[in-house]
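ARCHIVE CARD
CATEGORY: sequence design from structure
SOURCE FIELD: tokenized fold
FIELD CONTENT:
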């Protein structure tokens, strides 16, 4: 008798339940450095709809989150320009973990340890449904992208590098 894997609550899923946000759970087998491409492949989901949660910092080491399509990279130069800072760079993994409270590879934009501004690639908001990390490696959640604006006050930016 096979049964679905039960995923224990994470700070992200607890937060979403408390806010009465509907979401679907999508566990997969985490692979080191597999990233969005690996989860997309295992779950049979379009990589463009699998959203990466990236913790970055500005020149003053102030952290921020940028949400990006799984099949795109962030232009840090354009991001800095659009948010009015001199420079933006990815945080070192241990720094990102300290800011978010999540293990790298399992970072959710919801219920982070430290409140950080959230930016979202504008095209993500046009999708009918997205998958993003649920707060643990090997665990994505499916949600309506409008939630990013309402719950996270995510600011739309256009910073995806084209292929």
């Amino acid at each position: 008798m096979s049964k679905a894997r039960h995923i224990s609550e994470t700070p992200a899923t607890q937060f979403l339940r408390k806010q009465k946000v509907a979401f679907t759970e999508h566990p997969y087998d985490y692979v080191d450095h597999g990233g969005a491409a690996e989860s997309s492949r295992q779950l049979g989901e379009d990589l463009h709809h699998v959203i990466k949660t990236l913790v970055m910092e500005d020149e003053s080491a102030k952290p921020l989150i940028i949400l990006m399509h799984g099949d795109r990279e962030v232009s840090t130069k354009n991001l800095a320009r659009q948010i009015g800072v001199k420079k933006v760079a990815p945080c070192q993994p241990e720094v990102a973990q300290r800011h978010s409270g999540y293990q790298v590879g399992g970072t959710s934009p919801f219920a982070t340890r430290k409140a950080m501004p959230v930016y979202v690639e504008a095209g993500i908001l046009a999708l009918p449904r997205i998958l993003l990390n649920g707060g643990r490696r090997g665990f994505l959640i499916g949600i309506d992208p409008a939630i990013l604006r309402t719950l996270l006050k995510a600011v739309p930016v256009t910073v995806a590098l084209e292929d």
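CARD ANNOTATION: The chain has a mean pLDDT of 94. The beta strands are 24-27, 50-58, 63-69, 73-74, 88-90, 118-121, 130-136, 139-143, 155-157, 160-161.
SHELF: design records, drawer C
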